[in-house]
TrEMBL record:
InterPro entries: Beta-gal/glucu_dom_sf (IPR036156), DUF4982 (IPR032311), Galactose-bd-like_sf (IPR008979), GH (IPR017853), GH2_Domain-Containing (IPR051913), Glyco_hydro2_dom5 (IPR040605), Glyco_hydro_2 (IPR006101), Glyco_hydro_2_cat (IPR006103). This is DUF4982 domain-containing protein. Residues 655-713 form the DUF4982 domain. Residues 279-430 form the Glycoside hydrolase family 2 catalytic domain. Keywords: Glycosidase, Hydrolase. GO terms for molecular function: hydrolase activity, hydrolyzing O-glycosyl compounds. Residues 727-825 form the Glycoside hydrolase family domain. The keyword Signal does not apply. Pfam families: DUF4982, Glyco_hydro2_C5, Glyco_hydro_2, Glyco_hydro_2_C. One of its GO terms (biological process) is carbohydrate metabolic process. Residues 168-269 form the Glycoside hydrolase family 2 immunoglobulin-like beta-sandwich domain. Residues 451-473 are annotated as: Disordered. Belongs to the glycosyl hydrolase 2 family.
């Protein structure tokens, strides 16, 4: 079918009761271009009393009901055609009307779906499509609202290739040739038997044709026909994370003239799985260096732009990740395509809940009726993408510890396998949550398991945040991470989850590293994936991944910071021994504050630490704790790092004590302040890849030098900013194409004359955008901002902010930025015709 973007010329507003407008419009519509997040522009609401997870889960946004409308002209020549509208995602409880007639709905906010429109169209006239959506206490994170992903108009003949009707598999691969099977569904909505020809041509990574085939197919009225073609490609270029070679199948349907076309991009690669070699791609074992990622795009809210999705994937890979777990819902099409192109593996996840609710009005209310259709939508979207490695049927499902839950798991897993037998099935099980109803009777067993773990692991159980060895059981159980881990190793969990794990190809485990070695003995055929782990403990996890074949990898929570679950990973400090961390940050907290990469795309210290642990970085890394935290007891959650950044600029703190963290895989690290050695300290794996130095702040240069066997292996330098701050404006590109999904990202940074970041000079930056582009998002990585992302004025955070522009047509986008006591700065971006 011919696919045309349907993103332009929409209008939106909060839903209004029609009776309220009998005397006239009460709430006007605003023009928007999709994708659009109806929630991100709302005024957040400070709760009364103490913060709660209910308010903080959505970042203190109120939610609501929203409606979208669009008028569009339908020419006479479409009469007799099949016309569909495709929505890649509407959050949530979407209902669609065309010219006042109901044409479809979708309760789940992350499933793509199509509606058939042609029976309701007025040809040669203007038509109207209306979409309603709702978001209210239905998730544990910021969801956004409205038509937040792309929309398409699909037009086809009565005889046509079905939408999403092409499936490509590569069942037989050898060095000198690969078999490519292409299955095509041809539909016939006419009243006559039709015989047509399907021509298929495969193009290689360089664009040249490499194989072709033609098939004749007779299609009965109302009965789709399936065409199967086997093509053979010589010397195939295989897809993997280092060489993401892509092929393209081009299909043409002909009946005395072309009547339809379709394309499918795919890769040729072989997957193998066993407990000895783990995961192999094209015969080579691959350990998954994974990032859990939510769907929001920071200052853009939930709006899913192709350029933003590709930027996230690229920056995650640059930081050392080779895999993404989309949490906890199916991944967008643009992000899948970016993972294909850039060589990043995907664990795509279906649901965060099945029949047990986690929020007041979540998808559990619709799951029993809709789960099959939503699984079908996920697999149809994913099945041609070589980046997709496995499907996850759920996340932290409480039912996983019960027989009924195991039966549900089997039902979902078999549904996925029936639709796509070429990939693996997992389920991200939180073992503590699976037995949470029985925790009272479990305490004695948890104490025994925790004490045994302490005795076995000793110093390895110390957290990377400097926790002391030898924790007592009361302290251990007060820590959420250690509690989950201790309970996960219990016999009760072993027994209760056995069937739920048995229905899977890969046992996904959240916060359960205590089972990694245990299950190697108890379940020798079990292959395990750390589907969700604490970011602070990768120094302990990754050596286990490298040591054990049955352990496929680690997915940190989270690879990229996100909106909602406000304050989950924020640094917390206390002056007494009884204060415990909380996971709900008070208003105005907006961000979870636990990502390796912040919402603007800048890597945080945790990211460089992880890169060192992965063995991908030789140079040491310096992170300085903010001087005002010195001497305070850190009580952050297991998702929280110390409040440290890579800066040696602390105006007003001259002479104050400060702690310097240095990360390194080398045996020891020396720290020098303005040329004076502050000593050498051990680092490397035995010390969880890190060490600390206490000193006093004095401006100048801070240098870390790493040594192995007495020989220098690398160095890292931090210099203090000096003199007045200057404003720098840097676009990620100076030329952009005028096509849907394109964006320009502008970094605004306060520096000194030498380009050193001035983290202590934060101020308000004002932007003016003119010409052929508009500002669609502007903000910083401040975890608790007062301002929204829709204003042209933003306060920098640690000397930095990010603005995002969308081109509106060929020409020039002109940007001017001003800040107090700084010279104005300008940028010009050229928009060229696509």
């Amino acid at each position: 079918m011919i696919r045309t973007s349907f993103n332009d010329r929409w209008r939106t507003r909060p839903k209004v009761n029609p009776f309220a407008e009998l005397s006239g419009t009460v709430v006007p519509f605003e023009p928007v271009t999709l994708p659009h997040d109806a929630m991100i522009g709302q005024q957040r609401i400070a709760p009364d009393g103490e913060p709660t997870m209910e308010g903080g889960a959505g970042g203190y946004f109120p939610g609501g009901v929203f409606e979208y409308r669009k008028s569009f002209f339908v020419p006479e020549d479409l009469r007799g055609k099949r016309v569909l509208f495709e929505f890649e995602g509407i959050y949530r409880d979407a209902v669609v009307h065309v010219n006042g007639a109901f044409v479809g709905q979708r309760p789940y906010g992350y499933s793509g779906f199509t509606v058939t429109a042609d029976p309701y169209l007025r040809y040669g006239q203007d038509n109207e499509i209306r979409v309603e959506s709702r978001a209210h206490q239905d998730a544990r994170w910021y969801t956004g609202a409205g038509i937040y992903r792309d929309t398409w108009m699909l037009v086809g003949d009565l005889v046509r290739i079905a939408a999403d009707g092409v499936t490509v598999t590569t069942p037989d691969i050898e060095a000198d040739r690969a078999v490519v099977e292409i299955t095509t569904r041809v539909e016939n909505d006419s009243i006559a038997i039709r015989t047509v020809r399907l021509a298929t041509e495969v193009h290689g990574p360089d664009g040249a044709p490499v194989a072709s085939d033609t098939a004749t197919v007779t299609v009965l009225p109302g009965e789709p026909a399936t065409v199967r073609q086997r093509l053979y490609i010589s010397a195939p270029a295989l897809w993997d994370t280092d060489n993401p070679h892509l092929y393209r199948a081009v299909l043409s349907l002909d009946e005395d003239g072309r009547i339809d076309d379709a394309e499918a991009t795919f890769g040729i690669r072989r997957l193998q799985l066993d407990p000895q070699h783990g995961l192999r791609i094209n015969g080579r074992t691959v350990k998954l260096r994974g990032a859990c990622v939510h769907h929001d795009n920071g200052v853009l809210g939930a709006a899913t732009y192709a350029a933003a999705e590709e930027r996230r994937v690229r920056l995650l890979k640059d930081a050392g990740f080779n895999a993404i777990r989309m949490s906890h819902h199916p991944m967008s099409v643009p992000m899948l395509e970016a993972c294909d192109r850039l060589g990043v593996l995907v664990v795509d996840e279906a649901f965060d809940m099945w029949t047990s609710a986690k929020s007041g009005f979540d998808y559990s209310l619709d799951f029993p009726e809709w789960w099959e259709r939503d699984i079908e939508a996920m697999v149809a979207k994913d099945r041609n993408h070589p980046s997709v490695l496995m499907y996850s049927i759920g996340n932290e499902i409480p039912e996983a510890g019960s027989p009924a839950g195991a039966a549900w798991g089997r039902r979902l897993a078999e549904k996925v396998r029936a639709l796509d037998p070429t990939r693996y099935v997992t389920n991200a099980v939180n073992n503590m949550l699976a037995v949470i109803a029985e925790l009272g009777s479990l305490r004695a067993g948890a104490e025994q398991a925790a004490e045994a773990t302490e005795a076995k692991n000793g110093a390895e159980n110390a957290s990377e945040n400097g926790a002391e060895d030898g924790k007592g059981i009361n302290t251990l159980m007060a820590d959420a991470g250690d509690a989950m881990n201790a309970i996960a190793a219990s016999e009760l969990v072993t027994h209760r989850t056995a069937e739920s794990y048995s229905v899977l190809d890969v046992a996904g485990m959240n916060y359960s590293d205590s089972r990694y070695e245990l299950d190697r003995e108890l379940f020798p055929n079990r292959v395990i994936l750390g589907t969700e782990t604490f970011p602070t403990r990768i120094g302990r996890y990754w050596p286990l991944v490298e040591r054990h074949g049955h352990l496929l990898g680690d997915f940190t929570w989270a690879g990229w910071d996100y909106l909602g679950e406000a304050g989950l990973g924020r640094p917390q400090y206390a002056d007494d021994e009884t204060t415990r961390p909380t996971t709900a940050g008070p208003y105005p907290h907006l961000l979870a504050d636990c990502g390796d990469i912040d919402i603007t795309g800048e890597r945080r210290p945790a990211s460089y630490y992880r890169e060192i642990v992965f063995g991908l970085r030789e140079n040491p890394y310096i992170a300085v704790r903010r001087p005002h935290t010195y001497g305070k007891r850190f009580i952050g959650s297991p998702w929280a790092w110390h409040d440290a950044i890579a800066s040696w600029t602390w105006p007003g703190s001259e002479g104050a004590p400060v702690t310097v963290e240095v990360y390194s895989a080398a045996e020891e690290v020396e720290l020098l302040l303005n040329g004076r050695s502050l000593g050498r300290r051990p680092a490397g794996q035995e010390h969880l890849f890190r060490t600390e130095f206490d000193t006093v702040y004095e401006p100048g240069e801070l240098l870390a030098v790493s040594y192995r066997n007495g020989q220098e292996t690398g160095r890292e330098l931090l210099a203090s900013a000096s003199g007045p701050a200057e404003l720098a404006l840097t676009p990620d590109r100076v030329e952009v194409q005028d096509r849907h999904g394109e964006l320009v990202f502008l970094s605004l940074t306060l520096t000194d004359a030498q380009g050193v970041r001035h983290v202590g000079a934060d101020c308000t930056v004002t932007l003016e955008v003119t010409g052929d582009g508009v500002l669609v998002g502007f903000g910083s990585a401040n975890p608790a901002p007062e301002e929204g992302f829709s204003t042209a004025e933003q306060l920098t955070y640690d000397g930095r902010a990010l603005a995002v522009l969308r081109p509106t047509g060929p020409g020039k986008i002109r940007v001017a930025a001003v800040a107090p006591d700084c010279e104005p700065v300008h940028a010009v971006i050229t928009v060229i015709t696509a």
